[in-house]
Structures are given as structure tokens and as C-alpha cells.
Amino acid sequence: MKFDVAIIGSGLAGLSVALHLAEKHRVVVVSKGELLDGASNWAQGGIAAVLDSGDSHSQHIADTLVAGAGLCDEGATRFIVEHGREAIEWLIEQGVPFTRDDSAELGYHLTREGGHSQRRIIHAADATGHAVQVTLEQRVRTHPNITLLEHHCAIDLIHARKLDPRAEARCLGVYVQDTESERVLSIAARHTVLATGGAGKVYLYTSNPDSATGDGIAMAWRAGCRVANMEFIQFHPTCLYHPYAKSFLISEALRGEGAHLLLPQSAGTAAGTRFMPEHDERAELAPRDIVARAIDFEMKKRGLDHVDLDISHQSPEFIREHFPTIMARCLEFGIDITKQPIPVVPAAHYTCGGVVTDMAGRTDMPGLYAVGETAYTGLHGANRLASNSLLECLVLGRSAASDIERELAANARPVADVPQWDESRVTDADEEVVIAHNWDELRRFMWNYVSIVRTDKRLERAQHRIRLLKEEIDEYYANFRITRDLLELRNLVDVAQLIVASALTRKESRGLHFSQDYPRTLPRATPTILPGL
């Protein structure tokens, strides 16, 4: 299969690249499941952008730099923030039904989230990601120049030097497996874009969908690309705590609209007490890393399974208008948020590091781009500011598409011939239960040893276990036919290795990385950059 551009991933970043390029070029979008299965579809809060004259680029940049704890790239931050409005206007042109407010300058309601000094979050009630994804999905599905390969799992990048060590270093495409037929396809492309999202599934508790297994990060690293700041995993402070509520996020926008974090009934005489004012003067509106550590502290100190998030002091009409999705989902589990608090716990939420790129999404390998959560642009630093992620997807998606457009126009390089996938020397697996066991082991020790609070001893324990798992998985991969579970486990182990190596390198506490061995912050902030294989 030959295309001008192959896009791996169907979230906001991937679909925006596809739509910007498809007017003139043949594009294929590869999705592990349905187009709406990714993390973008789950995003509740909204998209941060300067959309009101009372706000300014300088304020948005300053808020981002503060949240990033000294590690944001100021040039990248400025580029993304200054292109925010045109990105939002593009979505409005596509037909995204953002929540209206006729009294606002732009005509849309703006909310505020933790770490923001202004109301600048444009949203579609409390299901912004879904509204955006559904709108773009309809356009992608009907576009004649876009081929969709749903239920196809990327295996590895095809790069010239792996085929011929004397060749120019260049990405030639990607191998993917049709997970329904188990047939492996070779996709050749003049340019390949990794938009596979983050790696939240490396942890036992996560707000991420099952597809968030770090595929793009792992594939790019194995292909020789640098990876940066993988120690900075953002734990969202408030995921619904319920045995049957898998990965349901309670949006930060609740705290932006006045919700309070309280100690639950199980805390005894302290039940119903706010605790965030004791941890930070911004209380519930502090950045996510501070809120997550405060919840973790209170839970461990008091032996709690969860804390409570209460917005019941707002009117039922206000809650119903602003948070219909959260209200409906909680009601499914017998929780009426207009009358009672929501039980919540922190959960792995966002991968702030990733594949090193420039402002056009270019990686270290010619022909290979990375956008969205897969990429490290320098925007997020040591901690992502709320709702900057979808903004980055839009701005860098458009920027990458523009660069690819220029490259395609300037260079008439033909689509390369690439070899077919060779599975002549593999056999059917004898015990696939081994994969399930290894998956569970990895996610549990990553949660226990490499989560919100870390020590070198815990990190070294995790590193030792990763080495053993990696040996088993590499042997399994070399000898047995591949499955989606095996491919995802292989990628997760590589990502876990990168997270732990990065965490051991950082001898300080900064942003999302908190070490009990090194509780102080060093005077000079430097990113952690790991070379590719």
C-alpha cells in the first residue's frame, strides 16, 4: 500500500493533520480501534486559547511557564499560544458545537481551570473532546483522499538503514497488523506521522483509554529518535473511584467552577473538611501536580481509599448545564452530584515527555513526524497546564501538515518500495496467558514504584524487573506470531524503561517528578534527553 502520508493514530492531532493535507495528497489514517477510541474523545474540560480582550498571550505564556516549573521551552510555548486563536477558529469552521455565551466577545462560554489566571477554556459543555472528534470524524470519513484503516495496530517503523546499513537514514513507512484478520500490511509513505497519544496504560490506575500504550514513543525510540522528559507523568487528581467506573475522569473544570476537595466519611471527625488550603494558597485551583500530591498525602496519612469532590453547593440547573456528561455518568453509579460528593482518586493521565520534535513536528529521522501527546515540543515542561494539550494537537498538527506540504511540493521523491513482513520463522504461541501475566506485573510495579512519589530504591527495583520482563518479551516477540496484546506490551515495557531511566537521571524534585531522596529543586532546569537505540 503506497501513500503520500501515513498517519498512525486517530486523535485530534492525527485527524487535523489528515484534513489539512488531504485536499492535495493521498493520506492513510491507521487506528487501533474505531476512530473515536482514543484519548482525545475522552477529553472533558476544553481547549485553552486567548479569545478575550481581557486576556493576553503574555498571560497565557506566563501561566504555562509557571505550571511547567522552569522546564518549558519559552519559544515553543510562545509559538503554540500565539497560534491558538486561529486553531480554534478552524474548529469553529469545521462545525464544532462549542458552548455558546452571547455576552462573550467571541460568542462562546469560557471557563477557567487550575493554573490559569483567566477564563480562557473554550468548551462544548463537559465533553469537548467528543464534540471535536465527532465533527472531524465525519469530515475524515467522507473525504475521498483519506483511506481509513480501523482495527489496525502499528508494529514498527520501516526505515531505510534497517533494510540497508549504507542507505540514507529515512523513514519509509510502517508495518501494521489487521487485528481482525491478523494479516500484516506494509504501508509505504513519503512521510509518516506518529500521533498515537500517550502511555497511561503503563500504570495500574489511569484515566486513559486502553489504546494509550506508548506505541509511537516506543517505535520512534527503537528507530533511533531521541526521547525527552519521560519522568514527567501527570497524574490527574480526580478520577472517579468506583469498582465499575473504569478510567472515568472528573474534569478539572468542576474545581474551576467552585468544587471543593473534602475528606470523606471514612476520615472520622475530620470528614467534610477541605484540605487543599493547607497545601497551597491557590487551594483547589493549584496546578495538577500539587493537587495530586496533596490527595496522595492525605490518603496515605489517613489510610483512605479516596477523597471527595463536592460541587453540590452549586444549583442543580448550573450543574446540569455545565456538566451533563459527568452528572449522567455518576448517576449510573448511584451518585447524584447535585446532592452528594464524588469519590475520587489520582490516576495516570498525561505523558508530558515524548519524541523530540521541532515546531514543525519533525523528529530526528527524515520523513518521520510526531504530533500530540506522542511528541515532546517543550510546551509542557515539568507539568502540563490544563487544556494546553488539545491546543498543542491543533497548532502542531497544522504546522506539521504545512511542513509536509512544502516537502512534498519541493521534492518529487517517489514512494519507496518496502519489503513485506516476514513471519516465516515464527510459530503460534503456546501460552498466551504469559502476556496477560507480564502486562499485569508491569502495571502494578510501575504504580507501586514509579508513581506520584518516588525514591531511587523503588526506581532501581522497577528497573530490575523491567530488564527481566524485556528479556522475556523480546524472546516471545522473536519466536511467536504477533498479537495486539504482545505489540502493546512490548511498547509499554520500552516506555517503562524510558520513564525509569529518566527518573533516575533527575537528581531533584521538579513539577510532576517528586523524589523523597532529592526533595529540593535545583537552581538550573534542564530537560532529560535520552538517545534512541
Automatic annotation (TrEMBL):
Principal EC category: oxidoreductase
Family: Belongs to the FAD-dependent oxidoreductase 2 family. NadB subfamily.
Annotated signal peptide: none
Species: Herbaspirillum chlorophenolicum
Catalytic activity: L-aspartate + O2 = iminosuccinate + H2O2
InterPro entries: FAD-dep_OxRdtase_2_FAD-bd, FAD/NAD-bd_sf, Fum_R/Succ_DH_flav-like_C_sf, Fum_Rdtase/Succ_DH_flav-like_C, NadB, Succ_DH/fumarate_Rdtase_cat_sf
Lineage of origin: Bacteria, Pseudomonadati, Pseudomonadota, Betaproteobacteria, Burkholderiales
CC cofactor: FAD
Parts forming coiled coils: 452-479
Molecular function terms, GO-annotated: L-aspartate oxidase activity
UniProt keyword list: Coiled coil, FAD, Flavoprotein, Oxidoreductase, Pyridine nucleotide biosynthesis
Highest taxon listed in the record's lineage: Bacteria
Name used for this protein in its record: L-aspartate oxidase
Record gene name: nadB
SUPFAM superfamilies recorded: FAD/NAD(P)-binding domain, Succinate dehydrogenase/fumarate reductase flavoprotein C-terminal domain, Succinate dehydrogenase/fumarate reductase flavoprotein, catalytic domain
Limits of the Fumarate reductase/succinate dehydrogenase flavoprotein-like C-terminal domain: 440-520
Location(s) in or outside the cell: Cytoplasm
PANTHER family registered for this protein in UniProt: L-ASPARTATE OXIDASE (PTHR42716), L-ASPARTATE OXIDASE, CHLOROPLASTIC (PTHR42716:SF2)
One Pfam family this sequence matches: Succ_DH_flav_C
